[in-house]
Design brief:
seven-stranded mixed beta sheet, two-stranded antiparallel ribbon, 6 helices
Length: about 260
Amino acid sequence: MNLQVTTHSEDQTFLLGRALGAVLRPGDFLSLDGELGAGKTRLVRGMVGGAGLPTAAVNSPTYVIAQEYTLGSISAGEKTNGGGASSLRIVHVDAYRLRGVDELESVGWDALISSQESPLHRPIVLIEWADRIERALPKGDTRGSIRISHDGDGGPDDSTRVFDITLPASWKARPEWVEFEKVTSVMNEPNAVPETDRGVAQPAKRGSTICPITGKLVPPDSPTYPFTDERARMADLSRWLSGGYVVSREITAEDLDEVGPGESA
């Protein structure tokens, strides 16, 4: 099953990853390829978040080759294929510095791909620069792949990316697939409102968008647009009040000139 998705900002790349991360199950492998700076690690950060792990710990493991993120105990049916509780793990591999599959032994590769372990206890494996270890990757319906390419003017501010995604057809049966499909379709809409435009009234032309808090689809006529619901709106407000958001530039002299008498910046 093949699909192509275009994102126009780093935030959208993160949201795409988050939607896909919710689909992943123990034992899944996802290979990621693209040039340096393509957005592989940002996509991984989104996928880890989509699986339920705080994303602050996610960085490219170039020098350590592999990092493991644990999500704690979850109940059957949430992120497993049934059969009891599971401690979900995500292993993030960066094969950039590897010279061949022989060096995979240092990260315990044989254990990662072993079919002897119960499916509930296998990790989700996300592999950057996977083309360098192609011979070692498993085949079948547990593996997907993503190739990322630039699709803009190539300038320093260009954040447009094209994701060519190949996933097993069996993944469509997973409950989270419906939401993933909605997210990808919105990102491919030419008139989709970017999540960075929230707060700007566009009643006549605005399209469906993706909630910056939940990552779910929000229709243009939603009373809480661009948020999924009132709870998401309040969570966004809380981030502003707690300092979770910051202004993207310093205050300038021109800004101060706009402050009226008796007011303060």
